[in-house]
User: Which sequence fits this backbone?
């Protein structure tokens, strides 16, 4: 299955890409996809505890299953005041 992953903010800058298509096998959860992303892009590992993921523009926890054609967005931690 192919999944389009979009990167935003700091992650886009660190990786030098805004998006990529990842090939995944079988049923995959957001947590499993995130593990693959962190393995492929270890420079994101230090942000692991505060990465925000959405699937099809909706907040997604690590247990959500991803389907072929879903759009996954990965955001860095944000600060505010």
Assistant:
């Amino acid at each position: 299955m192919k999944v389009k992953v979009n990167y935003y903010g700091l992650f886009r800058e660190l990786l030098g890409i805004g998006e990529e298509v990842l090939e995944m096998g079988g049923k995959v959860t957001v947590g499993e996809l995130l593990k693959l992303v962190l393995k492929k892009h270890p420079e994101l590992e230090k942000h692991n505890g505060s990465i925000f993921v959405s699937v099809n523009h909706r907040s997604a926890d690590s247990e959500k299953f991803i389907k072929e054609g879903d759009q996954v967005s990965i955001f860095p931690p944000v600060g505010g005041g």
User: Anything to note?
Assistant: The mean pLDDT is 92. The two ends are 40 Å apart (CA to CA). The first helix runs from residue 9 to 15.
